[in-house]
Specification:
By secondary structure, this protein is an alpha+beta fold. Helix content is 52%, strand content 12%. A 7-stranded mixed sheet has the order 3-4-5-2-1-8-9. The protein has a two-stranded antiparallel ribbon with strand order 6-7. The protein has a two-stranded parallel ribbon with strand order 10-11. Helix 13 crosses helix 15 and helix 14 packs antiparallel against helix 15. The radius of gyration is 28 Å and the shape is elongated. Bound molecules: adenosine-5'-triphosphate and magnesium ion. Adenosine-5'-triphosphate (ATP) binds next to helix 7.
């Protein structure tokens, strides 16, 4: 395991709470990622101080009471957000989602016991060291996701944990411990009661993980619940996914074969419009596009962003289409600043009106024709050449 090096903010917050007489530890994802040798993307802290006591200890900092009811306060330390949560034990779960009550606790052990997986249930203190009550380090070293406590019980408390189990397995390239795996397969119906936004978040992280194809293959029960449209995933598609670029729209496009299905599925999971439109565009373009020469690429850039065209190329390449040197050609077009839009055309509507072309539709139509010719390389994007062509077009 790699040594843990706290962020400046985390070490400040631990010191500050201790100087006020409280215990405080880094906990969860930041400890897991540090031990694996990855830089944590944020630091979560856990303490026996209650939310009002946390707020009082950081009276000179910007503090956001994110979820005081659940014991969470966010402190901003030189722009670094630190989520500080009071030790708690969750009460009974009435609906497989939300604990009906949250009880604050005075022991870090209670707090670790309520966490989902052994690898996520470790706390770290710079002097006291690692608190690892459930064998988290060993599971990390062996690449195992294991529930803290009885897996089925933990899934009945919160159905989202089923998806989190497979999400972490995919993200880290881990496997599920036997009992956890069995409970995932037996309890997948519990996912029906989970907020779709939360499902989307876990699913997106799963898809962008190290081994999404293995997980999709091994836990079809879970994906039939959340994304019946893509099931069963063909073995060839799983092979493609295993080496697909780390890009959400490309990976989503790879899994769907029709744009109607994708619309329905992505809307249900509450994906934002940009992602939905991008995936639909990729699915349609991959069927229709045939010309990947410089001219063909410029024609695409007339209607789609450079990002979308680049994604299309990586999707086609991933699916085994011979795209020749289209990726390089796209870079050349962009670096050279080829004109692919009316904004970049060397003449504007006013220039045509000055030639005597009546303002209105005709101007727009001529500009579009000129742009088409520039894109196709039959006219240079130069004012004099464009104006001569416009005069001829107006006859
Ligand atoms: P990521 O890198 O994706 O942020 P993370 O481990 O930090 O990973 P979060 O969803 O941010 O995951 O949750 C923070 C911590 O809170 C987890 O490590 C885990 O200890 C605990 N946790 C989160 N969700 C649950 C849950 N549904 N049930 C039990 N514990 C949970
Ligand atoms: Mg996190």
């Amino acid at each position: 395991m790699k040594p843990i090096s706290l962020s400046t903010g985390a070490s400040f917050a631990i010191g500050r709470l201790e100087s006020h007489g409280f215990d405080c530890y880094a906990v969860g994802g930041c400890v897991r990622d540090s031990l694996l040798g990855f830089a944590p993307h944020d630091w979560d802290l856990t303490t026996n101080a209650t939310p009002p006591e946390i707020v009082a200890a950081f009276s000179d900092c910007r503090v956001i009471e994110t979820g005081a009811k659940h014991g969470t306060v966010t402190v901003l330390y030189e722009k670094e957000p630190l989520e500080i949560t009071t030790f708690r034990k969750d009460g009974a779960y009435a609906d497989n989602r939300h604990p009906t009550s949250v009880t604050f606790s005075t022991s870090v052990e209670d707090d670790l016991s309520r966490r989902d997986f052994t690898v996520n249930a470790m706390a770290y203190h710079p002097k006291k060291g690692l608190v690892d009550l459930f064998g988290g380090q060993e599971d990390l070293a062996r690449g195992i996701i294991r529930c803290v406590g009885d897996a089925e019980t933990r899934f009945y408390e919160d159905g989202l944990r089923i998806l989190r189990a497979v999400r972490f397995a995919s993200a880290l390239g881990f496997t599920l411990e036997e009992n956890t795996a069995r409970a995932v397969r037996n309890c997948e119906h519990l996912l029906d009661g989970i907020a779709r936004e939360r499902i989307r978040e876990e699913w997106s992280k799963l898809l962008l993980g190290k081994t999404p194809a293995t997980i999709l293959r091994d836990y079809p029960e879970v994906f039939t619940r959340i994304l019946p449209e893509i099931m069963p995933v063909a073995p060839q598609t799983l092979d493609l996914l295993a080496s697909a670029p780390l890009d959400l729209p490309v990976r989503l496009a790879l899994l769907f074969d029709s744009s109607e299905k994708v619309q329905e599925a992505l809307a249900r999971l509450r994906y934002d419009n940009t992602t939905r439109e991008e995936v639909v565009a990729l699915l349609e373009l991959q069927k229709t596009v045939s010309d990947l020469t410089e001219i063909g690429l410029r024609r695409l850039l007339r209607s789609y962003s450079a990002k979308t065209v680049a994604r299309l190329l990586s999707l086609l390449e991933c699916k085994g289409t011979n795209i020749g040197d289209a990726t390089v050609a796209l870079q050349v077009i962009l670096a050279r600043g080829d004109c692919t839009s009316l904004q970049a055309l060397a003449v504007k509507g006013d220039d045509l009106i000055a030639l005597g072309i009546p303002a209105g539709k005709q101007v727009g139509a001529i500009l579009e024709t000129l742009l088409g010719r520039v894109i196709d390389g039959t006219l240079p994007n130069e004012k004099s050449a464009l104006l001569s062509a416009a005069t001829l077009l107006n006859k």
